[in-house]
Amino acid sequence: MLALLHTSPVHVPVFDALRDTHHPSLAMRHLVHENLLARAACEGPDAVRPAVSDVLAGAVADGACAVLCTCSTIGGVAEALAPGLGVPVLRVDRPMAAEAAGYRRIVVVATQGSTLEPTVALIRDEAAGRDLALRTLLVEGAWERFEAGDRDGYIDAVAAAVDDVSDADVVVLAQASMAEAAARVGGALPVLSSPEPGFRAAAAVAAAAAGGA
Predict the structure, then answer these.
(1) What is the mean pLDDT of the chain?
(2) Rounded to the nearest 5 degrees, what angle is found at the Cα of 154, between the Cα atoms of 113 and 98?
């Protein structure tokens, strides 16, 4: 069973759809903990390490053979806890970051400031020392639309911000919640999002772990 740790319920149908399309036989369990993101945004990701550890340990106790964290802000914290859990813990944005690291001029777009530093650090980690020209863009006011339930307004704001990007080779949508904006961007720049590549990687790991159990 693959457990998915979310910090918003909007991710549940997204990953259910990915499972139904690509891995219909995969057993999944969604764990939604919105408070983790709220606290991490205020106090920093390390502040939620004990709480994330408890959630992951509970998932393993309930039968998870792998865990996917879909929140970019706390993904690094979750990933680092894997050795003590005995099962793989993946962050949804690592495959996206690996692809982004193949470019040089990278713009990381986010709607929450707390996501920018972890995403930039992850891309640099995947670049393994290669020279990158990395800059960030925070879409002001978009997160307030998300919290108010204005999904279309949120996605439109992200897409408009991406359309204004120039002097870049690729745009990275730092949060899984932003993925739909890629389809609304009118420019020619590649726009990378995390849900599909992240899910594919997690599903493969979960299948391998289940097969070896």
Answers:
(1) 95
(2) 55
